[in-house]
C-alpha cells in the first residue's frame, strides 16, 4: 500500500504503545519480563486498534484486519514456521541435537577450549536454528570447561551466547531469518550471503579476542561423547539445499522426511513416535505463528489509521540519503527489540515499516532483511531481560550482568553492521530522499 495516500496520524500507533506498556510494565513491576505472555498483550492491542478505527463498521474493520493477515508474505511465513517446527521436532527426536553437539566437542582441541565453545555454538545454532536450544545444550558443558580450566565461567558462557546469536542471525531455519526474508520479500540465500560477509569479521575478531584471553588452556571431558554422523546429515542437507536456492518448503519437508528415516535407521526414533515428535515440533511454533497473525491484523489497522504514514513522515523529515535510511532501519529494529525482548516478534512488528523505508530509498530487499535480522540479534543477545541471557544465567548460576561484559560477538556484530552502512556499496544508489 502507498502510504502517501493516507493521512499521517501519530495516535494510530497507540495499540503498539499499549502492548509495550503492558509488556514492559508487568516485567518491571513483577521483576519478570515473561509474566505477560506476548499473545495476551497483542490481543489487547488488537482490541485497542479496533476501538480506534472510527468511521467504519465492525465488519469493515474485520475486513481490513483479514486483508493484513491474508497477505502472501504473512501466510507464507506462518506456514514456514510450522514446517520448520516439524523439522525441528523430527530431527531432535532422531538424536540430531545430541550428535551435533557431541561431534563438535569431540573435535575440540584441548588448547583452545573457550574458542572451541564459541565455534561449536556457531555450528550448532546454525544447524538447529535456535539460540535458546544451543544455550540449553552447551551451557552445562561451558560450566564444566570453566571448572577444569580455571577460566571465569562468565567468559565461557559468554562465548556460548555469542555463538548462539551467530546462528540465530544466519540459520536458514531460524524464525528470525524466516520473518526477515518474508517481511522484506527476498530469498533466504540472498539474505544469507549478504549477511554472512558482514558478520564474518565479527566472528573472526571474537576468536582472536578469546585466544588472547584464554591461550594455553587445557581440559578434558570425562563423559562419553557418542555421536552418529547419520544423525547430523539432516542439518547439513537443510543448510546446503537452502543455500543452493531450493524452495524453503521443499527443503524443510525433505529434512523432516530424512530425519524420520535416520531416526528409524539408527533406532533412536520408534515408529510409534514419528507423528508425535513432528507434532510437538509444530506445536512449539504455535506462539510465534499466532503472534504473527495478531501483529499482521494490528499492523493493517495501524496502517489504515495513518500510523505507518506518520512514522515514514518523521523518517523522511530526518533522513535524506540511502545511508540514512539504512541507519533508520537499524535504529527502528533495535528499539523495537529492546522494547519487546523478542527478536522474532520485533522483526514481525518492524518488518512492514522497514519494507516501506527500503522501497522509498531503493534499498535491496536482501539488504533490509539483513539489517533487520542482524540488529535484532545484536540487541537480543545483550539485553539482560532477554530470554537468551536469562536462560544462560539460570543454567549456570550467574546473573545476566555478569555475562554482559564477555558478549564479544554481539558487540562486534553491531560494529560490523554500522561499518557496512558507512562503507560505500557496489549498488549504493544515489540519494533518494523525498
Short note summarizing the structure:
This protein has 434 residues and is mostly helical.
Characterize the structure shown.
It is a single chain. The chain has 434 residues and is an all-alpha fold. The chain has one domain (3-422). It contains 21 helices and no strands. The protein has helices at 14-30, 38-52, 58-69, 72-93, 96-106, 113-128, 131-149, 153-170, 175-184, 188-214, 229-244, 248-266, 274-283, 286-304, 307-318, 322-340, 343-360, 365-380, 387-396, 400-403, 408-422. It is globular and about 70 Å long.
Main traits of this protein?
434 residues, mainly alpha, disordered C terminus
**Helix proportion of residues, in percent?**
over 70%
Number of strands: 0
Determine the mean pLDDT: 85
Q: What is the ordering of alpha helices and beta strands?
A: HHHHHHHHHHHHHHHHHHHHH
Q: Could you give the distance between the termini?
A: 17 Å
SSE blueprint and pairings:
Blueprint: H1 14-30, H2 38-52, H3 58-69, H4 72-93, H5 96-106, H6 113-128, H7 131-149, H8 153-170, H9 175-184, H10 188-214, H11 229-244, H12 248-266, H13 274-283, H14 286-304, H15 307-318, H16 322-340, H17 343-360, H18 365-380, H19 387-396, H20 400-403, H21 408-422
Amino acid at each position: 500500500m502507498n502510504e502517501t495516500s493516507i493521512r499521517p496520524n501519530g495516535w494510530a500507533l497507540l495499540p503498539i504503545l499499549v502492548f509495550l506498556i503492558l509488556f514492559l510494565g508487568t516485567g518491571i513491576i513483577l521483576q519478570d519480563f515473561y509474566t505477560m505472555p506476548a499473545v495476551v498483550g497483542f490481543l489487547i492491542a488488537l482490541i485497542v486498534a479496533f476501538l480506534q478505527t472510527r468511521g467504519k463498521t465492525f465488519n469493515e474493520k474485520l475486513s481490513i484486519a483479514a486483508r493484513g493477515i491474508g497477505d502472501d508474505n504473512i501466510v507464507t511465513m506462518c506456514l514456514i514456521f510450522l514446517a520448520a517446527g516439524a523439522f525441528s521436532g523430527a530431527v531432535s527426536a532422531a538424536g540430531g541435537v545430541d550428535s551435533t553437539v557431541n561431534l563438535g566437542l569431540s573435535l575440540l582441541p584441548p588448547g583452545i577450549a573457550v574458542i572451541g565453545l564459541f565455534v561449536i555454538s556457531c555450528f550448532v545454532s546454525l544447524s538447529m536454528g535456535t539460540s535458546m536450544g544451543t544455550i540449553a545444550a552447551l551451557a552445562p558443558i561451558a560450566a564444566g570447561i570453566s571448572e577444569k580450566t580455571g577460566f571465569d565461567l562468565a567468559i565461557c558462557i559468554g562465548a556460548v551466547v555469542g555463538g548462539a546469536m551467530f546462528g540465530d542471525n544466519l540459520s536458514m531455519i531460524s524464525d528470525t531469518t524466516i520473518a526477515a526474508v518474508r517481511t522484506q520479500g527476498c530469498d533466504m540465500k540472498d539474505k544469507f550471503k549478504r549477511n554472512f560477509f558482514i558478520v564474518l569479521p565479527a566472528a573472526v575478531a571474537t576468536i582472536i579476542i578469546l585466544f588472547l584471553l584464554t591461550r594455553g588452556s587445557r581440559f578434558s571431558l570425562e563423559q562419553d561423547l557418542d555421536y552418529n554422523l547419520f544423525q547430523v546429515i539432516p542439518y547439513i542437507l537443510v543448510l546446503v539445499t537452502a543455500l543452493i536456492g531450493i524452495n524453503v518448503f521443499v527443503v524443510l519437508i525433505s529434512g523432516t522426511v530424512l530425519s524420520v528415516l535416520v531416526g528409524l535407521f539408527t533406532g533412536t526414533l520408534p515408529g510409534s513416535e514419528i507423528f508425535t515428535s513432528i507434532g510437538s515440533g509444530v506445536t512449539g511454533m504455535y506462539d510465534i505463528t499466532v503472534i504473527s497473525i495478531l501483529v499482521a491484523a494490528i499492523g493493517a489497522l495501524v496502517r489504515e489509521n495513518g500510523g505507518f504514514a506518520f512514522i515514514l513522515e518523521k523518517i523522511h523529515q530526518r533522513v535524506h540519503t540511502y545511508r540514512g535510511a539504512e541507519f533508520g532501519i537499524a535504529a527502528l529494529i533495535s528499539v523495537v527489540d529492546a522494547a519487546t525482548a523478542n527478536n522474532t516478534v520485533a522483526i514481525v512488528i518492524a518488518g512492514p515499516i522497514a519494507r516501506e523505508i527500503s522501497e522509498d530509498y531503493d534499498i535491496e530487499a536482501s539488504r533490509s532483511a539483513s539489517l533487520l535480522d542482524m540488529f535484532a540479534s545484536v540487541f537480543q543477545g545483550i539485553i539482560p531481560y532477554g530470554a537468551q541471557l536469562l536462560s544462560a544465567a539460570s543454567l549456570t548460576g550467574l546473573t545476566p550482568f555478569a555475562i554482559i561484559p564477555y558478549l564479544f560477538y554481539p558487540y562486534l556484530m553491531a560494529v560490523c553492521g554500522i561499518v557496512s552502512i558507512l562503507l560505500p556499496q557496489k549498488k549504493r544508489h544515489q540519494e533518494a530522499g523525498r
